[in-house]
Amino acid sequence: MKLLILVALFGLSLSYHNPHTKHGRTSIVHLFEWRWKDIAEECERYLAPNGYGGVQISPPNEHIILSDPWRPWWQRYQPIGYNLCSRSGTEAELKDMITRCNNVGVNIYVDAVINHMCGAGGGEGKHSSCGSYFNTHAKDFPSVPFSAWDFNDGKCNTGSGDIENYNDIYQVRDCRLVSLLDLALEKDYVRGKAADFMNKLIDMGVAGFRVDACKHMWPGDLAAVYGKLNNLNTKWFSAGSRPFIYQEVIDLGGEPITASQYSDLGRVTEFKYGAKLGTVFRKWNNEKLYYLSNWGEGWGFMPSGNALVFIDNHDNQRGHGAGGSILTFWDPRLYKMAVGMMLAHPYGVTRVMSSFRWDRNFVNGKDQNDWIGPPSYSDGTTKPVPINPDTTCGDGWVCEHRWRQIRNMVIFRNVVNGEALVNWWDNKSNQIAFGRGSRGFIVINNDDWNLEETLNTGLPSGTYCDVISGQKEGNACTGKQVSVDGNGRAYFKISNSDEDPFVAIHVESKL
Ligand code: AAO
């Protein structure tokens, strides 16, 4: 009997770990601050044809509109209620996007902000994205409605009412994160409102959620909210599918709240992954690429089946959240290699970042412009994403997910999905290579000298097109060619001064 219950519970919880991606697609792209209209088009014209499995969208909830600073990107992490008009568009546009992306097999994952409402200093009025009235002095959010009873302040015992010490788990869960009004998710009423919001989105067709600020919510409260969620819409997902849940918990070690406290409930963001890989590619602390031979759990990360991984996210690419070692589009050469490593390696569910550019202004190591919102018109509305003739994006949208090296590695990951890591090679320094079964092989040179080696690729004999320097187009190759002999061996030469000092081949890039 006990065993049966255990099996049932285990089965139940694991069901939130599945991203439900379709057609053998494996990666998610975060289209940070994109408008719903642009995402719908991107699903159809680019993401589906190039094998992206899903999109993480910016928070769709009604949010505060701020003027000082002017329309920061982070205003969307300050909910006013659960109406669905936001900086990215109207509810009708949101619905249209979800439908169109689903119709081409690209899932939508919603960034769900349920820990809190807006900042305590948000004031009173209708400066909110759907025009709903609110009053932070009275903690009154009539559009939900939430009132003073629905917040945690009574339970918080810091002087400021904010979290002051991350070593005190009660503060972290019951006090305000950077002054954001902290919802009392122990109340069934509050849980119900959060679940209603998420269920509305599930019924519209989303495949799951990135749950914001989970460190600041009690795991038991989250379990109760998840338990109230509907199954996914059977128009696009098989009957009985539970939503995919990945929880944002920043666990770099050293705090009493850990990622593992949440991993039974759903996947968890593995922040050590990008922080460590950034350190390795930058060669800080004497790190070397060859130490990656046991990358993954061997580096103290959570079990692969619990992890959602990424090189950078919307916070740490601008100094919010964690770590100076993080690689971003600002360091494109190292960044492409790191993203390539992530996508070639079997660990975790992978998320690719897609950013907008902003004018950085460092004063004493801190970017004074870390608040700047997406490319916008003077009235504060977000600009569309124009596509240039060479397929890159214009108007300040970086579109890392369209960079050839990154997009082709997203395809590589799909081609090698489910294959074991094999044929590891390294030079005891910063040159490494490994394969995935007999379907793909990658070679990386981050040393200050050339790589010239004959390696066992495990691939069938033939001539392959490197998908980093180019790609297979028809029967031609626009990049380097690699010939694999009858024993699976191939000669690789990668100059340390190559534009991208790595090479990747897979069975679908065979000429
Ligand atoms: C804004 C203003 C605030 C203002 C507030 C209310 O910036 O000054 O008080 O409005 O008016 C985003 C922005 C915030 C913004 C907020 C609301 O980033 O700047 O506040 O919207 O508009 C913690 C949380 C984590 C959170 C992260 C940013 O645990 O959940 O802070 N991320 C999510 C979102 C994020 C969003 C929110 C949550 C809120 O992704 O975009 O905020 O919805 C330690 C802790 C971490 C903690 C960090 C930062 O990390 O471990 O849990 O993250 O500190 O406080 C080393 C350590 C590492 C440490 C890190 C600190 O690396 O190893 O553990 O240093 O840098």
Describe the structure.
It catalyses: Endohydrolysis of (1->4)-alpha-D-glucosidic linkages in polysaccharides containing three or more (1->4)-alpha-linked D-glucose units. The protein is α/β, with parallel strands linked by helices and 511 residues long. The protein folds into 2 domains: 1-416, Glycosidases (TIM Barrel), CATH 3.20.20; 421-509, Immunoglobulin-like (Sandwich). The chain is built from 9 helices and 26 strands. It has helices at residues 2-14, 36-47, 91-103, 169-174, 188-204, 219-227, 271-282, 332-344, 404-415, and strands spanning 27-31, 52-57, 62-63, 79-81, 107-112, 116-119, 124-125, 134-135, 180-182, 208-211, 244-247, 267-269, 307-309, 349-354, 362-363, 366-367, 421-426, 431-436, 440-445, 451-456, 462-465, 472-473, 476-477, 481-484, 489-494, 502-506. The strands form 9 sheets. It has an 8-stranded parallel beta barrel, surrounded by 6 helices. A 4-stranded antiparallel sheet has the order 17-18-19-26, covered by helices on one side. Helix 7 links the parallel strand 12 (267-269) and strand 13. It is globular, with a radius of gyration of 23 Å. The model is unreliable at 1-11 (pLDDT under 50).
